[in-house]
From TrEMBL:
Stretches for region Disordered: 127-147
CDD domains per the UniProt record, alphabetical: NTP-PPase_MazG_Cterm, NTP-PPase_MazG_Nterm
Transmembrane listed as a keyword: no
Protein name: Nucleoside triphosphate pyrophosphohydrolase
Gene Ontology terms for molecular function: ATP diphosphatase activity
GO biological process, alphabetically ordered: dATP catabolic process; dGTP catabolic process; dTTP catabolic process; dUTP catabolic process; response to stress; TTP catabolic process; UTP catabolic process
NTP pyrophosphohydrolase MazG-like domain boundaries: 30-103, 175-237
Organism: Bradyrhizobium lablabi
UniProt xrefs under Gene3D superfamilies: MazG-like
Catalytic reaction(s) noted: ATP + H2O = AMP + diphosphate + H(+)
Keywords for this protein: Hydrolase
Length: 285
């Protein structure tokens, strides 16, 4: 099978990978749930390529993201639910419906403000139509939290869930109370470690992360941004360890944990004055 610029070739390749017996064993054992994390990861890779202004990489990452759509559509087709063409039809219908000023003669040209109001009105209509298609038991209770989108990154969604609950007074009054909750959750993790309960450890770790997001919200920090900053800091300090070892003709594999830990502290010492200077400048503003 040869490469092609035609989407139909990609669909054929995906079908071949998912064909029993002759397909790829790994691809055949996947389902929606196991592929979903890769879908999220590829969306982040697209965003990263855009941030780096790397258009060659963006082309590759968009292809990887497109594969995710084709993958999900193929699995749905195997269940006789829908196919890739149905996905395309659904989004084209939605775009045409949401842009009557472009595609429908009856509305003609409208001002930007009118475009936005029409967009919101049509979105509300679509939301009501989707709700009407759901079983009665799914729409019987309208939760305060229903408006928090499920597809957001977990840290961001945790923040939004907490923020929404706080609008009716379900919230901590003091960041120190949240800090006490964090200590409580850490104690529960320690107890789960003693019991060696893997499922409980995963649950308690999630509770600790949720409490940390709550603390971030109370001190005015965005948890996603804060974690990105910490990731970058970890990369810088780890790179310092690599460079310091390389300068001595050493490798990471040949270094002890104690040596790497000492170099980590060196990296912290190098960064500390610059970090304190930046914080001081921030306070002066």
């Amino acid at each position: 099978m040869t490469p092609s610029r035609d989407i139909s070739r990609l669909i054929e390749i995906m079908a071949a990978l998912r064909t029993p017996v002759t397909g790829c064993p790994w691809d055949l054992e996947q389902d929606f749930a196991t592929i979903a994390p890769y879908t999220i990861e590829e969306a982040y890779e697209v965003a990263d390529a855009i941030t780096r202004d790397d258009l060659d990489d963006l082309r590759e990452e968009l292809g990887d993201l497109l594969l995710q759509v084709v993958y999900h559509a193929r699995m749905a087709e195997e269940q006789n639910a829908f196919a890739f063409g149905d996905v395309v039809e659904a989004i084209t219908r939605k775009l045409i419906r949401r842009h009557p000023h472009v595609f429908a003669d009856k509305d003609g040209n409208i001002a930007p403000a009118g475009v936005k109001s029409a967009w919101e009105r049509i979105k509300a209509e679509e939301k009501a139509e989707r709700a009407a298609r759901r079983p009665p038991e799914e729409t019987a209770h309208k939760s305060l939290l229903s408006s928090v989108k499920a597809g957001q990154p977990a840290l961001t969604r945790a923040m939004e869930l907490q923020r929404k609950a706080s609008t009716v007074g379900f919230d901590w009054n003091d960041p120190r109370a949240v800090l006490a909750k964090i200590r409580e959750e850490a104690d529960e993790i320690e107890a789960a470690l003693d019991r060696k309960d893997v499922d409980e450890l995963a649950e308690e770790t999630g509770d600790l992360l949720f409490a940390l997001v709550n603390l971030a919200r109370h001190v005015g920090a965005d948890p996603e941004t804060a974690l990105r900053g910490t990731n970058a800091k970890f990369e810088r300090r780890f790179a310092y360890i690599e460079r310091a070892l390389a300068a001595k003709g050493r490798s990471l594999e040949g270094a002890t944990l104690e040596e790497m830990d000492a170099l980590w502290n060196e990296a912290k010492g190098v960064e500390q004055p610059a970090a304190e200077s930046m914080r001081a400048q921030s306070r002066q503003r």
